[in-house]
Design goal:
The structure is a single chain. Helices cover 8% and strands 38% of the residues. The strands form 6 sheets. The chain has a 6-stranded mixed beta sheet. Bound molecules: CU-O-CU linkage (C2O) and copper (II) ion. The site of copper (II) ion has 6 residues, from loops.
């Protein structure tokens, strides 16, 4: 029995809600699993990394409880264009879950979809059993069933949530939302906006194309739509008072499209990537957000309109506008406050000389005819688990041996890019997802903080669905 078949049996038996450990007993394919221990020669570097963000965050005792119903709905993309979607609480994106650092988040998910689902809290460091990967962290939540997620986010920042079951269909149909964890010590903005960027593949009659995992998409760069939206709307217009300080938390929720927002009228200052504060603010004009990535920018609203265009392919089509409006806020503009930063983030050069602890080749599997993607030639069902000791810093080489893009996402951990094609790189921020171009080799240093069995996969949903996933176990 493959893992998928085992899961179906488990789901059919209705064992929903039993702790993840039960499902792990049947885990493991052919081949031996590798493991890496902590290298005592790296103590200084480990300490440097550890200074940049906490291992854990204590719960303050405040509990924020949210009810989410995942169900079919309709959604208006723009005037005269309404489509059938699947949505959380009837809206695309789903509700923004905004909490403070230290709050405990409880989410009661009611699955009213015609198929099983789960929620993954992308980038939020949660207890392993709350991470939402079916067959790894929990059983799929069957249609008509519910599940209670509970966790205290460890880090402040911009995160998001989406299904981790049949993501190529469920995310594409509109199931996603943001979770923003606010650090009360960070400056407040006059406008703190979340922009969830997505694209939709519509048929000529304006309905959502329902051929998910089309062979062409699977074997190329995934499903790229023909209509881009910000927060579910085509080219929204946001009124902002000139002089106001604006923070925009951009999240790429698309199945496959890479977006590179270009601001006309202001320079967007990048302050955080994938939720975590950068060492220092940087010019984020044209920053590439692969599926899964986040980018927080800030700026002071000028007197003239700011238009934002998506420019990854050099097409430069407008996705949003900020329009000056004197009435858009009240009170004194907070424009003079300092930008948040994380000066403790070590320079990537401190990891030079580590060598490569583990290499992942990203490619089709050997049975290419069946259009399976994998890590090191193995699709997910048979892939080996790599085990590392918690508390260590490990180096991985992501080598793209294919002709397709692969944004690789590590669950539960943050990492730093240390090299691209053998040239040292210091991006000055952490990531949980990095885009690897065809033929490219990216080296990363990853700090393994949270114990458990974590998914590592390509965030192009069609690639993940076709097997491009493996597991990292942190002991
Ligand atoms: Cu947003 Cu496993 O992914
Ligand atoms: Cu991929």
């Amino acid at each position: 029995m493959t893992r998928r078949e085992r899961l179906l049996v488990v789901a059919a038996l209705g064992l929903v809600g039993i702790a993840g450990a039960v499902f792990l007993t049947g885990r493991g394919g052919p081949g031996s699993a590798a493991s890496i221990g902590i290298d005592s020669g790296r103590t200084a570097q480990i300490d440097a990394f550890a200074a940049a963000y906490p291992v854990s965050t204590e719960a303050s005792g405040v509990v924020r409880e949210f009810d989410l119903v995942a169900a079919p709905s309709t959604h208006r993309l723009t005037d005269g264009l309404e489509i059938e979607v699947w949505a959380y609480n009837g809206t695309v994106p789903g509700p923004e879950l905004r909490v403070e650092l230290g709050d405990t988040v409880v989410v009661n998910l009611d699955n009213q979809l015609p198929q099983a689902t789960t929620i993954h809290w992308h980038g939020v460091r949660v207890p392993n059993a709350m991470d939402g990967v079916p067959g790894v962290n929990q059983a799929p939540i069957a249609s008509g069933e519910s599940f209670r997620y509970e966790f205290t986010p460890t880090d402040a920042g911009t995160f998001w949530f989406h299904p981790h079951n049949r993501g190529s269909e469920q995310i594409e149909r509109g199931l996603y939302g943001s979770i923003v964890v606010v650090d009360p010590n960070e400056p407040e903005y006059d406008h703190d906006l979340v922009w969830m960027i997505d694209d939709w593949l519509l048929d000529r009659d304006g309905s959502l194309n329902e051929t998910f995992n089309a062979m062409h998409d699977v074997t190329h760069n995934g499903r790229w739509g023909n209509l881009v939206t910000v927060n579910g709307t085509v080219a929204p217009d946001v009124p902002i008072r000139p002089g106001d300080r604006v923070r925009i938390r951009m999240i790429n929720a698309a199945n496959a499209r890479v977006v590179a927002p270009v601001f006309d009228g202001v320079t967007p200052i990048g302050i955080a990537v994938d939720g975590m504060l950068a060492r220092e603010p940087f010019n984020a004009q044209g920053f590439e957000l692969a599926p899964g990535n986040r980018l927080d920018v800030e700026f002071v609203m000028p007197d003239e309109a700011v238009s934002v265009a998506e420019n990854f392919n050099g097409e430069g089509y407008q996705i949003a506008t900020l329009t000056p409006d004197q009435t858009a806020t009240s009170g004194e503009p907070s424009a003079s406050m300092a930008s948040p930063a994380n000066p403790a983030l070590p320079a990537s050069a401190v990891f030079a000389g580590f060598g490569v602890d583990h290499e992942y080749s990203l490619d089709f599997t050997s049975s290419m005819m069946s259009a399976e993607w994998g890590f090191n030639g193995e699709p997910f069902d048979t892939t080996d688990t790599l085990t590392v000791d918690g508390g260590g810093v490990y180096t991985f080489r992501l080598r793209n041996d294919s002709q397709a893009l692969h944004p690789i996402h590590f669950h539960g951990q943050f990492f730093m890019v240390t090299g691209i094609d053998d040239q040292p790189v210091d991006e000055g921020y952490l990531r949980d997802t990095v885009l690897v171009y065809p033929g490219q080799t990216i080296d990363i240093a990853l700090r393994a903080t949270d114990a458990g069995l974590w998914a590592v996969h390509c965030h192009i949903q069609e690639h993940a669905e076709a097997g491009m996933m493996t597991l990292l176990e942190v002991t």
